[in-house]
Queue: 3 jobs
Job 1
Amino acid sequence: MRDHILFHVNGREHQVRAAEVFTTLSNYLRYGLCATGTKVVCEEGDCGACTVLVRRAATEEYRPINSCIQALHQLDGMSIVTVEGLRDGENLSAVQEAMVACHGAQCGYCTPGFVVAMTALYEKHDRVDEKQVRDGLTGNLCRCTGYEPIIKAALAVDGASAAKMRDRYPDLPEAGDAVQTDRFFAPSTLDDAIAWKRDHPGCTIVQGGTDVGVWVNKRAFNAPAVLSLTKLRELDELREEDGVIVAGANVTLAAFERFIEHRIPELFRILNIFGAPQIKNAGTLIGNIANGSPIGDTLPYLIVADAELELNGGARRVVISDFYKGYKQFDLGSDELITRVRVPIIRDTLKLYKVSRRRDLDISAFTAAFRLVMNDGAIESSRIAYGGVGPLVLRLPKTEAFLAGKRPSLELFTEAGAIARSEVAPITDVRGSKEYRLQLAENILPRFWYDAFEVQR
């Protein structure tokens, strides 16, 4: 067992010990290595100025993440490339050259993050189209409205002749063994992880850290102990089994999104606007579940699909709707970990909704999932889940019962909307007023009728 974290930065090995493992990657780069090309602005993972590339396994390409909300202990065994590592000696990379030629910078403060995120696009492609560019740069904000030349620069790159970072920096440190230092533990066996959680009440389990990193930066959060499951290779699994997707605790939202594109296209559509590539490359599906937020974007689908959580490697299973006992209260023992989620592939009529102040990279104000089983033109049964209207993602039993046995019509779903409104109790916060959310709860039902039935005619 090691007492230090081991990772590469631009091909050079680094070791970090003791309390320093809780330092954010961005601060380590800027103050520890004087690699000040990585900028820090929002410290929330929203702006992308701090973007770096990381590679976790030899079979993966480099992917962008936000370094401002990644602690060093999350990077054990990884290879990191910063904007300083993109050029070859004195020669700029193809992406950097394109940004110069197309004048893809104004104040320049956000430019390194754009360059790094753009480089990630060409790790996977030799050419990209405008949609790929816009999707790939969703997590990067330009305060000088310089998007047009930046997009032109991305489209101008010839990726076929450009050096790939996976070829420039192919090596990963040998770091498969367990690590324990200060208040941090990354075990190599599930039994050790369970025992450590049991013996450290109140410990925080950090996988992607996309929420915890914000707590640290904005709330001065200091966990009494931190547990990582990243070395448990059995939790990397992502497979389909008899119409069910099995995803381990280490599966990122980005990997899950790619896997379901043609299996659950409606959920894929929602995940596409869930967050930026930098967020989805770090955050995990089970992290989103364990966070227990009433506006968690994956939860409405998982609830109407009757997803199951496997605890402690399958020692116990819990249907996800039974897992939540109250706000941030879970059916999870002190000696239990969520190790996998089993996600059924829904073939019934299905629609998912996310309402937020902006389309991309925003926290939801309201979410909804509708699943109908149809029989001879009538609704045999329905499952409806709303988020953002109570302390939990809520099922709507009265509305579901009202719809059963009836034929879909605008009038039916308009009346159902009034019933749905009576079943929720939202609050007012920065993302929307109580009255706004009540109106959404009502209006989304006739909208669903139009999307599911009227547009098909």
Note: The chain has three domains: 1-231, 233-344, 349-456.
Job 2
Amino acid sequence: MQPEERDAALLWDMREAACEIAQFIKGVSYEEFESNKVLRYAVERQILVIGEAAGRVSSTLRDAHPEIQWRSIVAQRNILAHEYGEILVERIWRVASEHIPELIKLLKPLIPEPPEQDV
């Protein structure tokens, strides 16, 4: 797979995971989120997916789009993966409710539309 194709696939994975998070928490209050372990774990899993994909995006693309906080995204993934005893529910909520909607907006113009299928 060419670097551009790989980047497109990784960006798509990031957007899809971010959209999943947005859907998971739609209409959910912080109190509901805090008390629903299944929901929290689902959001954390998608944050892991986003961070893993962000870490694999080419440096060329990352350098071309400094508006995306690549390091912070990868760092959050690393905290979830390796420092799970230190995970703060408030931080996960803030990522999900504040940062994810912005990330979706930033990713949208970077993801090429799929080629049209000949019918």
Note: The chain has a mean pLDDT of 91.
Job 3
Amino acid sequence: MKLLIVAAAALIDAHDRILITQRPPGKAMAGLWEFPGGKLEPGETPENALVRELREELDLEVAATDLAPLTFASHTYDDFHLLMPLYTCRRWQGTVKLIDVSAAKFVTAPELSDAAMPAADVPLVRQLQSALSSVADR
């Protein structure tokens, strides 16, 4: 079975809301919401892939040093196995533009549970919600 490595970012704004994006028509799992990011190119680190993907998909500039690893997902789909590290990021430059996504929105941590997401993203949601509630409790 093919192993696919995809890096994802939880972009968290000043109000602790998280950016999610909607997969465009014509792509696998079209219409589902996900954390922005994408496939690693050969020889590319997850951080560099996120810097590139966030620029290509949303016209946002992120420094690799502003990406903090949080958790990862390991999920088997019918025809591939997905390994997806999730990074948090609280600093970026630019305004979200819909370049390679259908929609984008900032949601609160509890609202993440209401978003229809690919199966691999579901455990990431719980981990992110837990991490954000731990920060809020301090």
Note: The chain has one domain: 2-136.
